[in-house]
Amino acid sequence: MQIVFPIVIDAVAYASWLFIVSLGMTLVFGVLKILNMAHGSVYAIGAYAAATAVALAAALGLPPAFSLVAMLLSAVAVAVTVGPLLERGLLARYYGRDEVVLLLVTYALFLMLEDVTKLIWGVNPYYVSEPAQLFGNVLFAGMRIGGYDLFLMVLAAVCGLITWYVLNRTTSGKIVLAVIHNPEMSASMGVNIQRVYVVAFTVGVFLAALGGAFTAPMISVQPGLSVSVIIISFAVVIIGGLGSIQGAAVGALVVGVARSLAVHLLPEIELFSIYLVMAAVLIFRPEGLFQSVKARLI
Fold first, then answer.
1. Which domain holds residue 194?
2. Residue 147, in any domain of the structure
3. Residue 253 falls within a domain, yes or no?
4. Per-residue pLDDT at 126 exceeds 70
């Protein structure tokens, strides 16, 4: 029992930030049908922007609690600048092309953004632990739990619930669902498809940047950050099923549990455990846990 509780807490904490990032990726794929390789780069930009914003807030003498607001604002700033720029400026030119072409375009974008982050922020690591220190530790069942981990769990739940509510309980969300199911019919009914694409992609960018911003206090923000997160995010959305919010939540939990078990019991197979679970799911459910089987069009 003494080891079960830490495994569960670590698994849920890891799954929390991973769910936020994967939610953006699965949303973009669900609406635009783009497997966005550059999603990890946006995550890294969000982390760098948050580190810069927190340092700037501290230099201005603002209260430490404002660092949380600074991280949120940095994610919003990344979303409103990078999202429309990438979608309208680049990806829109390739709509209607083969999915492989779009995948290669986003991969090229991923490589370029990796170098852009180096040009802007350099190659030295950034550390912004102050926001995490605000929450201290919480004593529960004789164990000390990081308060920031609990905060991330709440943030992930809020992001998932808001996204689900907007898509299923609002008029705008139902328009997005209509575009997902049949963009041609939606366009014939007067829906502005381009606007839906821009908004959906920008929201996806915001979620990636938000995940990067609020993960920054727990990690060393440095080059290569985008590579690790994009691989694990792919594992999450593949396990859960591309385009499924519920799938992203369950996929993140599955990955979190697999990693946590490996870290506590057999650290040598930390990364291997994630790919092992993904391979096992693909053997029995190639379309993912929450994606229905579709007939292939010839």
1. 3-284
2. yes
3. yes
4. yes
297 token code pair: 């069009």
Residue 289 lies in a domain: no
Distance CA 233, CA 21 (A): 7
Compute the distance between CA of residue 298 and CA of residue 280 in angstroms, rounded to an integer: 28
Longest dimension (CA), the chain: 63
Rounded CA separation 288/267 (Å): 27
The answer, as to whether pTM is greater than 0.85, is yes
pLDDT tens-place string over residues 55-98 = 999 999 888 889 999 999 999 999 999 999 999 999 999 988 88
We report the CATH number of the domain holding residue 263 as: 1.10.3470
Instruction: Please check whether residue 295 lies inside any domain of the structure.
Output: no
Query: How confident is the model over 102-112, as pLDDT tens digits?
Result: 999 999 999 99
Q: Where are the alpha helices (DSSP H) in the chain?
A: 4-32, 39-59, 66-89, 99-121, 130-133, 147-169, 171-181, 183-188, 193-215, 225-240, 245-265, 270-284
